[in-house]
């Protein structure tokens, strides 16, 4: 069976953008692929504001695991592990970093975007520049075939394949290239109209938000800035409210959504009416996720067992990969 590896930074709970970007594909593919989910806690330390707040990362790792379980990933079939608990990944990352120039690391567009979005200036660590290599090692440690990701993570996958090709060229055919699978919504806009929903901009609806929180956030959503009065014709394209309706509405909702679109474009419906309907659609979508989350929250022993067993399995696979890599590099001194 082919393998998936993907995961999440442990810097807070997961939101709707994570769902349409990657989580949805994880759930759909979990029976077709042997799936590994990394809780990327060491990645999280790459951001300056978390370096002195390890308790946030620790708590977030548990929240991220619960979110993955809540959307429908089956722990009997899916392997979860914290990145920091698999030291073989660090060793593999160190080895692979020898094949990547410093300039190549800095050219990563996702790194550039992160520096800009988070106003890091030049206040970032060596670990921040290296964390794409750590992600490469995450993927290759279990010899994954497919990586479901958001569009913003594609540069990391390109780097992964560059490293694979370079390693195989120098040391022989040892590692394999991977494919990415982007979600049906490449980047979900934030509730403030920003091009991306993200925790750092406080423009997210979380998978664990209560119904009242969802409604409050929806009612504050950015819509069409050119529409001053309810009777003004409105724009559908680029309007977050309608983007969310298209993303999370069911087939049963399609007729109502289309009616709202038609009325909105001719100025026959108020924003507040459409927003109330969106809140209903989102809460219908989130209700089963919230219920599953509560079920796992009530079983902390089971959650800990899932992580422990997942770590053991991942370490065993990572050790095999590391042995093959070292053998190819003539570093197998004790065989």
UniProtKB/TrEMBL annotation:
InterPro entries: aa-tRNA-synth_Ic, Rossmann-like_a/b/a_fold, Trp-tRNA-ligase, Trp-tRNA_synthetase. The keyword Nucleotide-binding applies. Keywords: Aminoacyl-tRNA synthetase, ATP-binding, Ligase, Nucleotide-binding, Protein biosynthesis. GO terms for molecular function: ATP binding; tryptophan-tRNA ligase activity. GO terms for cellular component: cytosol. Gene3D superfamilies: HUPs, Tyrosyl-Transfer RNA Synthetase. It is an enzyme of class 6 (ligase). Pfam families: tRNA-synt_1b. One of its GO terms (biological process) is tryptophanyl-tRNA aminoacylation. PANTHER family: TRYPTOPHAN--TRNA LIGASE, MITOCHONDRIAL. This is Tryptophan--tRNA ligase. It comes from Candidatus Daviesbacteria bacterium GW2011_GWA2_40_9.
